Structures are given as structure tokens and as C-alpha cells.
Amino acid sequence: MEIERKYLIDQLPENLMSYPSHEIEQGYLCISPVVRIRRQDDEYFLTYKSKGLMVREEYNLPLSKQSYLHLKEKIDGNLISKTRYRIPFNDILTIELDVFHAPFDGLLLAEVEFPTEEMANTFIPPTWFGEDVTFSSAYHNSTLSQMPLSF
């Protein structure tokens, strides 16, 4: 079970480069239900996500690089590329800050995953967080993957 809140970010936090990060590339084979492939650095995954906004089922299965590259040719929509910074928030929580690359340059989203719904519902975000978009599917990566791109 995945329990997370999602926020738009207007300004990057200071010392961002001092935090660990991952280069992520992901594409969607299906968006209802969500079936995603992801490369995170040198690891590859196939992920299934159920419907939902703050609470969703999520299952990750490892893929070989060869399987990932084969499936990458079959994605539907935009390939999403981003750098994910992992910023410790407290003894329990970590902020995952996604800095998107082309074609979504400028989009900054922070996600915080919680062990319980109660903790998610009572979460007070840091002052550098912007609008809470947890309950908007517009900022799901699967939705972004389907957006028409204008050049």
C-alpha cells in the first residue's frame, strides 16, 4: 500500500545538490490500471498501481535492462525523465523532490510517503512546499505521460 501526499514546489530548497539523488526515466504501458516501466539509475522495474489519489496499491517487479528496453519501445505517450532528490524530513519521513526534464522542464513536485493514513492526514508540510495537489490526478506521472506536447 502506498500512502503519499504530493505538492507543487515553486522554489528549490537550499543545498539541494547535497542530498542523494536518482536519475529516473519512466513510461506507461497502460494508465487504467497504471502499468509503468521505470529505470532508476541502473535498476529496472515494472510497476502496477491501483486507482486512488492519496492511498493506492503498488507492486514493483524487477526487470532486466533488456526487458526494459524492449518494453520502452511500447510505451503509450510521453517518456518522463526526472532527477529525484531524497531529502530527510524527520526520523520517519523523507521528501522525494522530483525535478522534471524535457518536455516537462520547470515542473517541480514533492512527494512524502507515510506509514499510516492518520499521519498523512495530519502532516504539516515545510514552508517551502507550494500547493497541495494530492487529490488532483492532474499531477500523476501517468497523466503527464498522456499530455499533448506543443512545440
What does this 3D model show about the protein?
This protein has a single domain, classed as Hypothetical Protein Pfu-838710-001 (Beta Barrel), CATH 2.40.320.10. A 9-stranded antiparallel sheet has the order 5-1-9-8-7-2-3-4-6. The chain is globular. It has 151 residues and is mainly β. The chain has 3 helices and 9 strands. The model has no long low-confidence stretch (mean pLDDT 95).
CATH architecture: Beta Barrel
Query: Mind summarizing the main beta sheet?
Result: 9 strands, antiparallel
Number of DSSP strand runs: 9
Large-scale geometry? globular
Give the helix/strand class.
Answer: mainly beta
- Total discrete domains: 1
Please outline the helices and strands.
Layout: E1 2-8, E2 21-31, E3 34-40, E4 43-49, E5 55-56, E6 58-63, H1 65-72, E7 80-88, E8 94-100, E9 108-113, H2 117-121, H3 141-144
Antiparallel strand pairs: 1-5, 1-9, 2-3, 2-7, 3-4, 4-6, 7-8, 8-9
Keywords:
mainly beta; Hypothetical Protein Pfu-838710-001; 9 strands; globular; nine-stranded antiparallel β-sheet; 11% helix; single chain
Would you summarize the structure shown here?
By secondary structure, the protein is mostly beta strands. Helices cover 11% and strands 41% of the residues.
